[in-house]
Amino acid sequence: MIKKTIQDALNQQINEELFSAYLYLAMAAQFSEMNLGGFSHWMEKQAQEELEHAMKFYHFINERGGRVELQAIKGPQKEWDSASRMMTESLAHEEHITECIHNLVELATREKDYATMNMLQWFVNEQVEEEAGVTEIVEKLKLIGERGQGLFMLDRELGARD
Fold first, then answer.
1. 25, 45, 74, 118 - which has most CB atoms within 10 Å?
2. What is the pLDDT averaged over residues 116-133?
3. Residue 147 banded pLDDT, cuts 50, 70, 90
4. What is the mean pLDDT of the chain?
5. What is this structure's pTM?
6. What is the 3 state secondary structure string of the chain?
7. Do the beta carbons of residue 141 and residue 36 sit within 8 Å?
């Protein structure tokens, strides 16, 4: 049986993951409006991943005999001034999610909830990958700028994401 403190914290993380999906869909929509279909595709894939993350927490709570309690999801920002700004804010958001995951690990450790600690290790590793992927895009945007052929080449690269 899952402890209430762990259950509540994991339910909050479901909300964080669902908000992440909303945020990335909002960014995908703006990239689409900017005729950057590759960036839009990349963000849509990112949103799908976040939904999958939410479902991992959902299923884990259920498997442990807990109760999933969904909360209202706040609306994301709707407009950004540039592709670079969106990717920089995406990186900041991933850093926030990393902090949330680390806080869950600390809680599970304090509660001596070894099953949750084990499950969370996947998320710890996933966040390393998430931050690295977005950092790479941010750094490429710094190199190529917001205009010209480099932006379109990066857009094509991001459009190839599986």
1. 25
2. 98
3. confident
4. 97
5. 0.95
6. CCCHHHHHHHHHHHHHHHHHHHHHHHHHHHHHHCCCHHHHHHHHHHHHHHHHHHHHHHHHHHHCCCCCCCCCCCCCCCCCCCHHHHHHHHHHHHHHHHHHHHHHHHHHHHCCCHHHHHHHHHHHHHHHHHHHHHHHHHHHHHHHCCCCHHHHHHHHHHHCCC
7. no
